[in-house]
């Protein structure tokens, strides 16, 4: 039979991992959570504090005191835990965003791999390609995020990183955003255009949404492709 954790049971626990396991139990009562929150011994342990803050029954007064004291790894745990109440997750996300300027490149890379959208949207202005690579691999990073990043960046290196990505480099809306970006290098524009199928290349050659130089390069790519096609006598003018 599963053990129900009541307030008086805290006295029986002498190890922080035991307290954490009790807090994670589905049979953990509100009284037990409140008893842990009032225990100076328990809350002096980092893992207990994080488990408490993540718990849906944790008193909010304790949460608001504890959040500013957590490290960025712990804040990320809180921000990404679907069991944690939304107001608490939002506060943790806000704290993480505040910490971004203080993080090293290595810490930003680790954060970019796992952060939820409200946090990683603030990493989209990063120009370090290792941070961008980690962001592109984040499971929560969606197509609309990639299009937004591709359209907004003014870094040719970031554009190249996106277009080389195994997943995002093959998405038509991402390629379109890249080709419309003024920071797109000519060599990279040509490389993208010549890799496109005829129908998509034709679309770019006629689209008024594309910059004039992209339309012209698309037309030239079609012209060269048709010259190389045996028996093809159509030419672009």
Number of helices: 16
Uncertain residue segments? 232-237
Q: Cα-atom Rg, whole angstroms?
A: 26 Å
Mean pLDDT value: 90
Number of strands: 0
The secondary structure category is mainly alpha
End-to-end CA span: 81 Å
Helix fraction, binned, reads 55-70%
Run of helices and strands: HHHHHHHHHHHHHHHH
β-sheet strand percentage: under 5%
Silhouette = elongated
Largest sheet: none
Structure description:
The chain is mostly helical. The chain has a domain of 96 residues. The chain is 60% helix and 0% strand. It is built from 16 helices and no strands. Helix 1 packs parallel to helix 4, helix 10 runs parallel beside helix 12 and helix 15 runs antiparallel to helix 16. The longest helix has 16 residues. The radius of gyration is 26 Å and the shape is elongated. It starts with 15 loop residues before the first helix and ends in a 10-residue tail after the last helix. 33% of the residues are buried.
Question: What tags apply to this protein structure?
Answer:
237 residues, mainly alpha, elongated
Summarize this, please?
This protein is mainly alpha-helical and 237 residues long. Helix content is 60%, strand content 0%.
Lay out the secondary structure.
Blueprint: H1 16-24, H2 30-37, H3 40-43, H4 46-54, H5 60-66, H6 72-80, H7 86-99, H8 105-114, H9 117-120, H10 129-136, H11 143-152, H12 156-164, H13 172-179, H14 186-194, H15 198-206, H16 212-227
